Structures are given as structure tokens and as C-alpha cells.
């Protein structure tokens, strides 16, 4: 592709190079490989989008794009090299676009973040286990909302819904007209959709919040907002990206083991989507602006320590029948938890020596340094040694990403194995009660579902 074609054709339609005019080995290779040609199309679109978003820095953007073209051309006919160059450059352009158009938190956002931090700290004095939940509840709002689900698909083989044919209860005729004018069938085709009308910007008109369950290995759900804009609902990205379509999510959740949730809160006259992601010893709450692109996000981080115990009453894995631990075994397991400081997750791991003594003969040292592979639906906390009847075992404390309840506290699992042995793995339940040790705030990038951009 010539520099003129890629760099200066900002008003051209979203298309790749004109292959009838290919005049180099690189251009011939791109035209001959459909995946490369599609990347070239994406490059043209991303470049034009960024040029439009950054009028004050167009000269520098043109310069870096020319430099990239020179680097790309060094790949000649190497398809893998070309693909890598395109993908890396597309990622850079996308991040530059996000930074150019993303919402920047202002003094009100920072004040809301600090108010929530103070509420958590104050509540933690009397409710050290559930201060975060109570604080979020104090800011929670469900003002004037109407929710409805999509209709089942005509063909039950398709795991998605259709936008409703009939006006749901609670929807006004004016809203129904706007909903039907907004092309929402594309959202329903992504999976099982649910719709909520709620005023997100305080203009007196209800906006639209769509949740779509797509399933997959992670049992994913994606969430997007659309602003009520005159006679239709407009996608959140439309002012910044005319090509935006269904699937441009505000955040997502993973129901396969992850501990994530979200809820609407209101403070200082503003609505926020409080997206919460939990793991062992820490909860992070991201205050997302529901109708903007979020990059630098006000974040509250709550850290916990746990008091861990090994219940005397345990349950067999095979049939869940109850049995009682021998006192010496319960003592050994409890002692290992205490020695490992597993209840203090802020402490970094410092294990560099074998967990159990390595014998002169056997499978080798690697089997003695850690418990081994973990399973992604559980969160591994730490590995430790457990001495039972003068024999050394290797154990791992696992949990479900900090999931916590008033009745059961923290459910955890201690798995135990004998190194260099074919003996079956043993598992013992562990309970934990938490208390807050730190509440901090920051503004930065999100992760674990809120890092859509």
C-alpha cells in the first residue's frame, strides 16, 4: 500500500488497497492473502478514526504511520511477519484512539470516590466483614426502572432471543417507538438479551441498558448502554465511532468461577455503574461512567485478612456424607495454615526451597517445590507443607475468588498430596472470616471485565 493511499485518504470508504494497482512484493502478498487484506481494511478504518479524533496531533500520527509502513515493508512476502506488524500497529492505534476520546474523571467523580472510601471506613468500624456491601447499598439506586426480556427465538436450536414484538409493561408509547427505531435486533442476536430503561444522565428521559448472556466456556455476559437521543436510542460509542455496532460493551462478567457483580449507585447527582471484581483478600470497585468511554477509572480497593479454621466436620467428595476429622489431623492442617500466613494475602510469596525434603532417589526435585497445576475455576492462594504422622505432604489453599457470605464466610479448600507418590489427592474444607485491613483509592485502568477498552 502506498503512503498516499493509507495516510491521506481519510475520507475514503472503509476498504483496503486497490489490488489492481498493487506495485510491490508486500502489496501483492497482502492482496493474495485474505486475512492480511482484512487487516489492511481494519488498518484504514482505525487510522481514519484516530485522525478524526486527534486533529491537533495529526502531523505526528502521519509521521509514525509512515515509519510503520517502512517497517511493514521489510517483511516483504513473509505472511507471519506482515500479520504480526498489522496486529501490533492496530493495537497501538486503538489504544491511542481510546486515550483521545475517553472520558476524563473530574472533581465530582473524585469526590464520589472519596465519599465511598470514607463510608466504607466508617462502616468497617462496626461491620468489618460487610462494610463494602453496606456502603454500596447506601448509594444504591433503582430510580424509575423498567426491565423486560427478549422473546424466545423462533428456532429453539439458536441460543438467543429476539427483540420483543409487543410493547412490554412499563414502557411508554414514546419509548416503544424509539426502541423500535434503534436497530436492537443485532444485540439480541448475540445471545439471550434483557433490557432495562433507566435515566443515566439526569435529563428526564430514560436511557437503555442491555445485558446479553452469550455463554461460552466462561459463561460470559456483556453489558452495554444506549443514550436516549430524540426519537431513538444511540449507542454509547456512536459519537466517537460511527462504525460502532452491537457488542461494544461497557463491561462483562465471567460466571465460571469469577466473583464479579455490578449495580447502579448515585451520588452528587450522577449515576455510576459500580463494577465489582473480587479475589482472595481484595475487592476492587470501578466507578464506570455509564454513557462514556472509560479508560482512567475511579477505583476503590478494599483489602482483607482472614481468620482461617479447619472444621472438625468434613464431607466425603464422593457422596457428600459427613465425617469427623481426627484431632491430630485437624491440628496438623490448622498448624500448616497458620505457619504459611495464608490468612494474610498481602504478604508476597517467599518460597524458594522445597516444601518437603527431596529424597536421594525419586521423580526429581520439581515435584517438591509446589503443589502443581491449578484449575481455572478456582483461585490458588498459596502452597505449604503439612506434617502428618512424621510424613511431609504438599498442600494448596484454594478459594473461589474471594466469594463470601454472611452464613458461611469464605469457603476454601485445602488439597493435599504426597510428593513423588501415586496416592490419591485428599481435600479438606476450610472456613474463613474476614475483616478489612485497608481501603484505598486510585484512578487508572481497569481489568477483569471492565477493561473493554
TrEMBL record:
One of its GO terms (cellular component) is extracellular region. This is Lysozyme inhibitor LprI family protein. Residues 19-90 form the Lysozyme inhibitor LprI-like N-terminal domain. InterPro entries: LprI-like_N, Lysozyme_Inhibitor_LprI.
Amino acid at each position: 500500500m502506498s503512503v498516499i493511499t493509507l495516510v491521506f485518504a481519510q475520507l475514503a470508504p472503509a476498504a483496503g488497497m486497490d489490488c489492481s494497482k498493487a506495485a510491490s512484493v508486500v502489496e501483492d502478498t497482502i492482496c493474495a492473502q485474505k486475512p492480511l487484506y482484512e487487516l489492511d481494511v481494519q488498518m484504514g478504518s482505525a487510522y481514519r478514526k484516530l485522525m478524526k479524533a486527534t486533529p491537533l496531533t495529526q502531523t505526528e500520527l502521519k509521521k509514525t504511520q509512515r515509519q510503520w509502513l517502512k517497517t511493514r515493508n521489510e517483511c516483504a512476502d513473509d505472511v507471519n511477519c506482515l500479520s504480526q506488524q498489522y496486529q501490533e500497529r492496530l493495537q497501538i492505534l486503538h489504544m491511542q484512539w481510546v486515550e483521545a476520546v475517553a472520558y476524563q474523571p473530574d472533581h465530582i467523580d473524585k469526590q464520589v470516590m472519596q465519599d465511598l472510601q470514607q463510608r466504607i471506613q466508617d462502616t468497617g468500624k462496626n461491620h468489618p466483614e460487610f462494610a463494602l456491601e453496606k456502603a454500596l447499598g447506601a448509594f444504591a439506586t433503582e430510580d424509575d426502572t423498567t426491565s423486560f426480556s427478549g422473546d424466545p427465538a423462533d428456532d429453539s436450536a439458536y441460543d438467543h432471543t429476539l427483540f420483543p414484538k409487543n410493547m412490554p409493561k412499563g414502557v411508554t408509547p414514546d419509548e416503544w417507538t424509539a426502541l423500535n427505531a434503534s436497530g436492537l435486533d443485532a444485540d439480541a442476536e448475540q445471545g439471550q438479551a434483557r433490557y432495562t430503561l433507566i435515566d443515566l444522565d439526569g435529563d428526564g428521559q430514560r436511557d437503555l441498558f442491555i445485558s446479553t448472556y452469550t455463554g461460552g466456556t466462561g459463561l460470559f455476559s456483556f453489558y452495554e448502554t444506549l443514550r436516549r437521543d430524540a426519537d431513538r436510542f444511540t449507542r454509547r460509542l456512536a459519537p466517537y465511532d460511527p462504525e460502532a455496532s452491537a457488542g461494544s460493551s461497557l463491561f462483562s462478567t465471567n460466571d465460571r468461577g469469577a466473583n464479579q457483580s455490578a449495580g447502579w449507585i448515585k451520588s452528587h447527582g450522577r449515576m455510576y455503574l459500580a463494577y465489582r471484581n473480587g479475589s482472595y483478600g481484595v475487592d476492587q470497585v470501578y466507578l464506570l461512567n455509564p454513557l462514556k468511554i472509560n479508560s482512567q477509572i475511579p477505583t476503590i480497593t478494599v483489602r482483607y485478612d482472614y481468620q482461617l479454621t479447619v472444621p472438625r466436620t468434613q464431607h466425603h467428595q464422593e457422596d457428600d456424607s459427613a465425617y469427623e476429622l481426627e484431632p491430630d489431623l485437624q491440628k496438623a492442617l490448622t498448624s500448616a495454615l497458620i505457619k504459611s500466613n495464608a490468612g494474610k494475602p498481602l504478604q508476597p510469596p517467599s518460597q524458594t526451597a522445597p516444601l518437603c525434603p527431596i529424597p536421594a532417589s525419586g521423580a526429581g526435585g520439581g515435584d517438591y517445590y509446589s503443589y502443581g497445576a491449578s484449575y481455572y475455576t478456582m483461585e490458588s492462594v498459596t502452597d505449604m507443607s503439612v506434617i502428618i504422622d512424621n510424613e511431609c505432604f504438599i498442600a494448596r489453599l484454594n478459594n473461589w475468588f474471594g466469594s463470601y457470605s454472611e452464613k458461611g464466610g469464605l469457603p476454601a479448600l485445602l488439597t493435599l498430596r504426597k510428593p513423588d507418590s501415586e496416592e490419591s489427592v485428599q481435600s479438606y474444607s476450610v472456613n474463613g472470616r474476614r475483616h478489612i485491613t485497608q481501603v484505598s483509592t486510585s484512578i487508572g485502568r481497569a481489568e477483569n471485565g471492565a477493561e473493554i477498552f
